[in-house]
Amino acid sequence: MSKKEMLDKAFRDAVTEINVNSIDDEDILEDVLATSMKAYAERENVEFTDDEIRATIVAGLETIRKAGKDFSYQNKMML
What's phi and psi for 26, nearest 5 deg? Predict the structure, then answer.
């Protein structure tokens, strides 16, 4: 598995454990996700830099938000 795939898996594991919609403060959310990703790296005996973790979190949260925008539109149409 490539390092990028490992970072993506660490992010997926983090957002599976944490409800990202329940944390309003962006800085706290990023810290919580980063801590979870670091724990994943330790468990899997791989090394991620803080910059790699941050870039993965930013990209992942952007993807989640884009998906959420589409979902809210669908909810309005169903009413």
Answer: -60, -40
